């Protein structure tokens, strides 16, 4: 039985999100640059570690430490931006950085509890799927692919694909859990259950709002790239397009995420 007859319009979500994003664009983009810089630094360090001669154990430990630092800092940056977005949506146009900082610091622990729990589950599922796939490929490579061995390869590949699909599916339905934990004071388990319940009532509208953002991102990105390449092919300039887009449009993604949470919570 449907609980309420409220209609959630993805275009309304997008319009409200764009207004909130535009209202705090400069501070949000400046803060977002921190995440973009750390993401690129993490990528460089990973590539350097793969090309270097360090032992596997040291490389794995270094990667894990850098990943945890990135997750924590990125979580705090996201909460800072979400604080500006929330205050803007509530009509507080003159929000200060100190207010956003205090709100983000207060929300960091409950946000991380849910986020790290979801990431741990996702890593476990991906790890299990990758292990099964690797075992199947190793078995077939050592014995040759023929007859029953082909069945083993197909089975392990199917298991891997099924686990990836399940991860994306449940990740979509549980994606509001960090926001529910922060803004409603719920524990991780309650937040996860509530996220699934709310998204399940309006999955199409929520998914459409995310797809609209991706389409907007691709349209803007392609437009900028085509325009820039008409004047220059300098690699340094072209390499700045992606991080610049991430810095400016990353806060819009967070705005859509928060606005979707608000609309699905009252629908």
Give me the secondary-structure topology:
Blueprint: H1 10-23, H2 25-51, H3 56-89, H4 97-143, H5 148-173, H6 177-184, H7 188-201, H8 203-229, H9 235-238, H10 241-266
Helix pairs in contact: 1-3, 1-8, 1-10, 2-3, 2-10, 3-4, 3-10, 4-5, 4-6, 4-7, 6-7, 8-10
Written overview of the protein:
The structure is a single chain. The chain has 267 residues and is mostly helical. It contains 10 helices and no strands. It has helices at residues 10-23, 25-51, 56-89, 97-143, 148-173, 177-184, 188-201, 203-229, 235-238, 241-266. Helix 1 (10-23) crosses helix 10 (241-266) and helix 4 (97-143) packs antiparallel against helix 5 (148-173). The longest helix has 47 residues, at 97-143. The mean pLDDT is 86.
Mean pLDDT: 86
Shape: globular
Q: How does the helix and strand content classify structurally? A: mainly alpha
Number of strands: 0
Helix segment tally? 10
Q: For the record, give the distance between the C-alpha atoms at the N and C termini, rounded to a whole number.
A: 14 Å
Radius of gyration, Cα only, in angstroms? 21 Å
Oligomer: single chain
Strand content of the residues, in percent? under 5%
* Largest sheet, strands/sense/barrel: none
Helix and strand pattern: HHHHHHHHHH
Poorly predicted runs of 5 or more residues: none
Percent helix range: over 70%
């Amino acid at each position: 039985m449907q609980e309420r007859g409220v209609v959630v319009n993805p275009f309304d979500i997008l319009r409200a999100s764009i207004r909130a994003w535009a209202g705090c664009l400069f501070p949000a983009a400046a803060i977002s640059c921190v995440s973009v810089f750390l993401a690129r630094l993490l990528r460089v360090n990973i590539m350097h570690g793969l090309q270097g001669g360090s032992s596997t154990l040291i490389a794995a430990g270094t990667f894990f430490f850098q990943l945890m630092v990135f997750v924590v800092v990125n979580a705090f940056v996201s909460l800072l931006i979400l604080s500006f977005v929330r205050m803007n949506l509530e009509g507080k146009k003159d929000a200060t950085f100190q207010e956003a900082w205090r709100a983000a610091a207060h929300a960091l622990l409950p946000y991380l509890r849910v986020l790290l729990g979801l990431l741990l589950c996702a890593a476990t599922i991906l790890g299990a799927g990758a292990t099964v796939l690797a075992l199947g490929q190793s078995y077939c490579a050592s014995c040759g692919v023929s007859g029953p061995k082909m069945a083993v390869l197909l089975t392990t590949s199917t298991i891997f694909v099924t686990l990836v699909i399940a991860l994306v599916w449940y990740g979509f339905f549980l994606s509001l859990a960090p926001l529910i934990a922060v803004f409603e004071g719920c524990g991780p388990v309650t937040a996860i259950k509530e996220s699934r319940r709310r998204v399940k009532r309006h999955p199409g509208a929520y998914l459409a709002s995310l797809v609209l953002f991706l389409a907007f991102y691709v349209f803007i990105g392609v437009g900028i790239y085509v325009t820039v390449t008409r004047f220059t092919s300098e690699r340094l300039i072209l390499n700045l397009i992606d991080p610049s887009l991430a810095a400016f449009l990353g806060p819009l993604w967070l705005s859509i995420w928060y606005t979707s949470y608000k609309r699905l919570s009252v629908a």
